[in-house]
Design brief:
binds FE2/S2 (inorganic) cluster; 35% helix; 5 helices; alpha+beta
Length: 156
């Protein structure tokens, strides 16, 4: 079937098998490999994207469900070489090791800070409970969230 979606502000279409996941469509049909495929069963959050403004695991959304809807991916967060405050904070805090989980975390943290510019540690832990990292031990990821929140609050 042909699906038409808006991806990162651009109208896109793809000829897909309706049972394919949105993650597969993004990565394999639309050339957007930023969202990662780690578990393919909604457990790790590495495929986090926005669907009509809601944070979802792209591996759990069928391609057909994305038809006519708006998708935003991690690729939309930077402007060319200019990283977002959240991306910068992950680098600054050393919250990236292998980096496989990082796109999902960056999307989830951006979503959190858009909704709660000054989250508590409990709110951060709860918001990121669906994102798994096998490398960092999470301490530096938490540091990155608070650093990003600070940078965003002090941005002009
Ligand atoms: S790949 Fe989608 S949640 Fe793990
Ligand atoms: S940095 Fe390796 S899984 Fe998170």
């Amino acid at each position: 079937m042909l699906i038409r979606t808006t991806v990162n502000g651009e109208p896109r279409e793809a000829d897909v098998w309706p049972g394919e996941s949105l993650l597969f469509v993004l990565r394999e049909h639309l050339g957007l490999p930023g969202s990662k495929n780690a578990c393919e069963q909604g457990e790790c959050g590495s495929c986090s994207v926005w669907l009509d403004g809601e944070l979802v695991c792209a591996c759990l959304v069928l391609a057909a469900q994305a038809d006519g809807r708006e998708v935003r991916t991690v690729e939309d967060l930077s402007a060319g070489d200019e990283l977002s405050a959240v991306q910068e904070a992950f680098l600054e805090a050393g919250a990236v090791q292998c980096g496989f989980c990082t796109p999902g975390f960056v999307v989830a943290v951006t979503h959190l800070l858009d909704e709660r510019p000054s989250p508590t540690e409990l709110e951060v832990r709860e918001a990121l409970s669906g994102n798994l990292c096998r490398c960092t031990g999470y301490t530096k990821i938490l540091d990155a969230v608070f650093l990003a929140a600070e940078h965003r609050r002090s941005a002009p």
